[in-house]
């Protein structure tokens, strides 16, 4: 369990970043206004887009900030605290340099991903506005049609040109649907997400990722093949996995099962990768679930007897589908 102090520090930093991000998004609202796009030269639009991209650059620094290092120290503490009661790990020492290197590599990865997201957002908006201007030129209303349109649904005059208000709006919508508006992150699947939702989810994921990577790595070094998934009463599909056990890798699983055939319940445990790859929310974007070391081989027979077998992958995928359906229905109603 992370201490309240760390949670607070990171949350405070995230809140500040979100406020700054929202202010920037507001400042560039004109990028979503097609009349502004048509009134201005592409050169001017590109200049505004470049400024926007530059202003968003602080997000990369947010993910690589040195304050994030505290999460590595916290993960080490989680690891040590979880093993306090196990005599075999009484004089446990965790190499700080090694943890720092690991945390730095995770920070770099998140920084790089964020930079990529900002670049593609910029590219999308540049393409969208360029295409829109070209297509809009072809949509200009001819003098003969002005009278007809004035009588029916109106024309708009932008930068000296006259446009059919409805058709130009529709054209803009088509392009917005494809390239998003100025705050949309577009995934390869085509799914769109507001940039602030994305950054918030990414920060949560990074917190979890740092803890889980440090715990799994330090476990492996000490011959602890099993980790336990935290419980906080999740209401999403992670719920199925709360309090269950995972092997850190497939190799660790094979090793453990051959060394400890008497711990039969372990045969039902999945690997971390298997659980992450099932159709539930566990360990994916925005998940807060954390791992702690679980040295089963040093636990009492009585404690092991109390462990329930892990749910099968077929069960978790099925439940995940059912829960996803319920969530969608609740949203629709
Ligand atoms: Zn979760």
In terms of topology, how is this protein built?
Blueprint: H1 4-27, H2 34-39, H3 42-56, H4 58-64, H5 69-83, H6 96-138, H7 143-152, E1 155-158, E2 161-164, H8 165-179, E3 184-186, E4 192-194, H9 195-221, E5 226-229, E6 245-247, H10 250-259, E7 270-271, H11 272-277, E8 291-293, H12 301-305, H13 313-332
Parallel strand pairs: 6-7
Antiparallel strand pairs: 1-2, 3-4, 5-6, 5-8
This protein binds zinc ion (ZN).
Residues 234, 238, 281-282, 287-289 line the site of zinc ion (ZN).
Q: Would you write up a description of this structure?
A:
- The structure is a single chain.
- The chain has 333 residues and is an alpha+beta fold.
- The protein has 2 domains: 1-222; 224-333, no CATH class.
- It contains 13 helices and 8 strands.
- The protein has helices spanning 4-27, 34-39, 42-56, 58-64, 69-83, 96-138, 143-152, 165-179, 195-221, 250-259, 272-277, 301-305, 313-332; strands at 155-158, 161-164, 184-186, 192-194, 226-229, 245-247, 270-271, 291-293.
- The strands form 3 sheets. It has a 4-stranded mixed β-sheet with strand order 7-6-5-8. The protein has a two-stranded antiparallel sheet with strand order 1-2. A two-stranded antiparallel ribbon has the order 3-4.
- α1 (4-27) packs antiparallel against α9, α5 crosses α6 (96-138) and α5 (69-83) packs across α9 (195-221).
- The longest helix has 43 residues, at 96-138.
- The chain is elongated, with a radius of gyration of 26 Å.
- The protein starts with a helix and ends with a helix.
- The model has no long low-confidence stretch (mean pLDDT 90).
- The chain binds zinc ion (ZN).
- Zinc ion (ZN) binds next to loops.
């Amino acid at each position: 369990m992370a201490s309240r102090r760390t949670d607070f520090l990171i949350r405070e930093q995230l809140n500040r970043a979100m406020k700054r991000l929202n202010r920037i998004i507001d400042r560039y609202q004109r990028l979503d206004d097609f009349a502004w796009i048509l009134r201005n030269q592409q050169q001017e639009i590109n200049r505004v887009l470049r400024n926007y991209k530059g202003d968003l650059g602080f997000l990369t620094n947010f993910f690589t900030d040195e304050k994030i290092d505290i999460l590595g120290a916290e993960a080490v503490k989680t690891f040590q605290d979880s093993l306090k009661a196990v005599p075999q790990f009484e004089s446990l020492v965790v190499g700080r340099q090694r943890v720092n290197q690991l945390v730095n590599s995770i920070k770099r990865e998140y920084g790089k991903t964020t930079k990529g997201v900002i670049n593609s957002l910029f590219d999308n908006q540049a393409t969208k506005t360029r295409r829109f201007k070209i297509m809009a030129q072809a949509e200009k209303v001819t003098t003969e049609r002005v009278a007809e349109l004035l009588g029916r649904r109106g024309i708009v005059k932008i930068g000296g040109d006259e446009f059919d208000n409805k058709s130009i709006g529709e054209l803009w919508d088509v392009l917005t649907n494809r390239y998003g508006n100025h705050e949309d992150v577009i995934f390869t699947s085509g799914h769109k997400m507001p940039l602030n939702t994305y950054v918030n989810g990414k920060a949560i994921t990074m917190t979890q990722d740092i803890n889980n990577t440090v715990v799994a790595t330090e476990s492996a070094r000490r011959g602890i093949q099993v980790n336990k998934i935290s419980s906080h009463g999740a209401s999403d599909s992670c719920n199925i996995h709360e309090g269950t056990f995972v092997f850190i890798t497939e190799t660790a699983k094979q090793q453990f099962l051959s060394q400890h055939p008497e711990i039969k319940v372990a045969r039902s445990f999945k690997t971390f990768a298997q659980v992450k790859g099932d159709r539930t929310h566990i360990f994916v974007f925005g998940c807060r679930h954390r791992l702690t070391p679980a040295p089963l081989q040093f636990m009492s027979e009585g404690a092991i007897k109390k462990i329930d077998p892990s749910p099968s992958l077929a069960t978790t995928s099925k439940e995940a589908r059912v829960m996803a359906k319920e969530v969608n229905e609740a949203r629709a109603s």
